[in-house]
Every structure is written in structure tokens, then in C-alpha cells.
Design a protein that fits this description.
The chain is mostly helical. Helices cover about 80% and strands about 0% of the residues. The protein starts with 6 loop residues before the first strand and ends in an 8-residue tail after the last helix.
Length: about 425
């Protein structure tokens, strides 16, 4: 049965003049800055009161509950009002942060308190993110999704960088309580914006009311029965699995092996971030006609860049880092836009959850595998293996006729006639 197309509730303005969407992107970037500030404060406080192993457990504590709950969050996203879900779980986040801010003056931070905060945030993320992932499709036309993604990702990166830079200062002068208060203010602003100004332009098809477990099962059945969606989910799930270990572990290993020092790692990371921002912004200025096809080819180039990290002097590693960032930013915008525009909207939340779940569950395995390979072979080998795997994986979507022909403009034309949601 064909999926119902979104019902257009109001006509969106041209993206460059869409004040509502621009304001939402700005508010979200401010929230990302608050999150980065809070993460710095949590990590810094953890290392002050606990051993390195326990501090690492605290910082990572939100990952496991998020992975457990994420699929249920996808089911809720597909059958509930996304705005209400986002407001509810942002209010809960504010409650957690206020509890921490009130706790700290009364007694010194404890491991138990930090674990509570990290786990509570992980659970809130698991319910919030799938619903938030559908907002772009509710606000802008499919043909404007790449521009939306380019601006939103760039703003998010800038917000995160600013929050991280400010976070150290805030925790040094105001402590964990002050950092919690600052992040609570950003979430309060998000709640107010969603409640007052964020009004969707498209009504998405909703999933049937059924048990959560049955809804999850139907999500995986949909993935099995729709090859194009399955390819996109696998590609987006694997975006970070090759580059994450190469950057997170590999750059430090290369710098140590060559005697370049920690400052070289910082330079490589900065070039990676700069490249990602430029790659994302470039989509808004020079968008390809066949978005998915261009995105997958960018990931082929990224695989070559990952391989190049294992060879050559510092300047070539710096160039490869910039290239990896640029291709990551470029491909992420294009493929995320294709995902939002083409996935059946009754399954958009669940497909987004599966994508995030793959990253959460497989990244630790990929990190450990890269490190193990580096310990038993020459250092260039894991870079070549992970980069080659990325390039090989892209053969499947690049050989798929649907992605070679697809343009988001044609998706917009196909959905010009509104129909009732299922």
C-alpha cells in the first residue's frame, strides 16, 4: 500500500526568507552550546571526585540507557505529536538540571549524583531525538531540506564549539551548579520557542496505535521490505563507524608514533571541524542535482581520506583531516535530507532511531577493533582497512538505480497534491 503523503497545512516561504525556521535553528544551536557546556562540567567534576575509570563510566553512563530506550522513542515519534514529546522531555531535562543545581550547594557532588544526571539525560535523549528528527520534514519542503541541513548543522557545530570553549570557564568560576543552571536556561528557551512559535507546515502520516513492541517489530519489517530505505539507514548508521575510530584513536596514535606531540592532534581535529563546517555550508551554495548520488560519492572520497591518514608527513595528515571533515559535512547534509524526504513519514521516527542505535551500539566495537588491529600490525593497516571498508560499502548505493536518478525536486513534485494522512 502506498504511503500517505504529508498534508500541507500552510505554504512555507522560500528558505532564505523563512524567519521561523532560521529562529529555530538559532535556538537549537544555543541549546547545543548549553549541552557542550554541561558535558565539559560533568567530565571535569567527575575527574575531580573519582578515579579515571569511574569518571569515564560517568561520562558514558547515558549511552546504555539511551540505546535501550531509543527504539521506544522512535515508536512514540511515529504516532504522537512531535512538539509535545519535545516539550515534555525538555521540561524533564530542565528538572534534572535544576535538581543538580540545588543539590550541589547543599552537599559536595557525588558519583551517585553525577550518574543520576548522566543516565537521566540519556533516557530523555532517547525519547527526544527521534521526535526532533522529524521536525525538519514538518517545517520545510523536501527540496529545501539540504539547505536546512546545511545551515542547521553548521549552526550546531558552531554552538557546540562555543559551548565547549565557554564550559571550562563556567565550571571553573561557577562550578557544576552554575553549569547546570546555564544549560537549564537554554532548555527553557527551547521549550518556550516550541510552545509559542514552532508551528509545523506539514502534517505527517501517523503510525497505528499498537503496543510498543509490535511497533518496533513493524519498524524492522518496514526496513526489510523497503530496499531504498534500508540502504539509507545502513549508510547513515555507518557514517561514523569508519571515520570515528580513525579520528578518535588513529590520529593520536600517529602523532605519538611520529613524535608530533599533542598539539598536532589538536590541529588535525581543528582542521576536521573546519572542513565539516565548510562542507556543510557548501551544500547551501552549490547543491548537486542528484543529492543522494553526490553524497555517496563524497563518502567514497572520505574513505580515501581515512586511508591517507595512515601515511605521509604531518602536512599530508593535516590535508587528509580537512578533506575528511569536508566530505563528512557535505555527505551528512545530503544524505540526511534524502532520508527525511523519502522515508515513509509513518516510520520516520523509527528509522531515525535505528540509525542512531547502530552508531551507539557499534561504535565501541569499531573503536576496539581499530585499536586491536593497530596493536598487532603496522599502524597504516587499520587506516587502510577502515578506509577501504568505507569505499567498498558505498558500492551498493552507488549501483542502486533509484539513488542515481533521485532528486529532491522530483520528490517535491510528486507530493504536490496533498492527501489525508494514514
Amino acid at each position: 500500500m502506498a504511503a500517505a503523503e504529508p498534508v500541507r497545512l500552510s505554504e512555507p516561504p522560500a528558505f532564505r526568507r523563512d524567519v521561523r525556521v532560521h529562529a529555530w535553528i538559532g535556538v537549537k544551536a544555543l541549546s547545543d552550546a548549553g549541552d557542550a557546556l554541561w558535558t565539559i562540567a560533568l567530565a571535569w567534576t567527575a575527574v575531580q571526585i573519582a578515579s579515571p575509570a569511574v569518571a569515564g563510566l560517568i561520562v558514558a553512563a547515558g549511552t546504555v540507557p539511551r540505546a535501550v530506550v531509543l527504539l521506544f522513542g522512535g515508536v512514540i515519534a511515529d504516532r504522537s505529536d512531535a512538539r509535545r514529546v519535545m516539550m515534555l522531555f525538555n521540561i524533564l531535562r530542565v528538572g534534572v538540571l535544576i535538581a543538580v543545581a540545588l543539590w550541589v550547594p547543599a552537599s559536595p557532588p557525588t558519583v551517585a549524583a553525577l550518574l543520576f544526571a548522566a543516565i537521566a539525560f540519556g533516557v530523555c535523549d532517547a525519547f527526544y531525538e527521534p521526535s526532533a528528527g522529524t521536525i525538519a520534514r514538518r517545517l520545510v519542503r523536501p527540496e529545501d531540506l539540504p539547505s536546512y541541513g546545511a545551515v542547521a548543522q553548521t549552526a550546531s557545530r558552531l554552538g557546540t564549539m562555543a559551548g565547549a570553549a565557554i564550559g571550562g570557564v563556567v565550571v571553573a568560576y561557577a562550578g557544576l551548579g552554575g553549569s547546570a543552571t546555564a544549560n537549564a536556561l537554554t532548555f527553557t528557551l527551547v521549550v518556550a520557542f516550541i510552545a509559542i512559535w514552532l508551528r509545523p507546515r506539514f502534517l505527517l502520516a501517523r503510525a497505528a496505535k499498537e503496543s510498543a513492541l509490535r511497533g518496533i517489530a513493524h519498524g524492522f519489517s518496514h526496513l526489510r521490505d523497503n530496499p531504498a530505505t534500508r540502504t539509507l539507514v545502513l549508510a547513515l548508521s555507518g557514517l561514523n563507524l569508519a571515520v570515528g575510530p580513525a579520528v578518535g584513536i588513529g590520529l593520536a596514535l600517529r602523532a605519538h608514533d611520529q613524535g608530533w606531540g599533542a598539539q598536532a592532534v589538536g590541529l588535525f581535529e581543528a582542521l576536521l571541524g573546519l572542513g565539516a563546517a565548510i562542507g556543510a555550508v557548501s551544500v547551501a551554495r552549490w547543491r548537486p542535482r542528484r543529492e543522494a548520488f553526490a553524497g555517496f560519492w563524497a563518502l567514497v572520497a572520505q574513505g580515501a581520506g581515512i586511508t591517507a591518514l595512515g601515511f605521509g608527513p604531518a602536512w599530508s595528515v593535516a590535508a587528509a583531516s580537512f578533506a575528511i571533515g569536508a566530505t563528512a559535512g557535505y555527505a551528512s547534509v545530503l544524505l540526511s535530507a534524502t532520508f527525511s524526504a523519502t522515508v515513509d513519514t509513518a516510520y520516520l521516527g523509527r528509522m531515525g532511531s535505528i540509525t542512531r542505535l547502530g552508531d551507539d551500539c557499534l561504535m565501541p566495537v569499531a573503536m576496539a577493533g581499530f585499536g586491536a588491529l593497530a596493536s598487532v600490525t603496522a599502524l597504516w593497516v587499520p587506516f587502510a582497512v577502515f578506509g577501504g571498508a568505507m569505499m567498498a560499502l558505498m558500492i551498493v548505493p552507488l549501483r542502486t538505480a533509484a539513488f542515481r536518478r533521485m532528486t529532491l525536486s522530483s520528490v517535491t513534485a510528486a507530493s504536490a497534491e496533498p492527501s489525508r494522512p494514514a
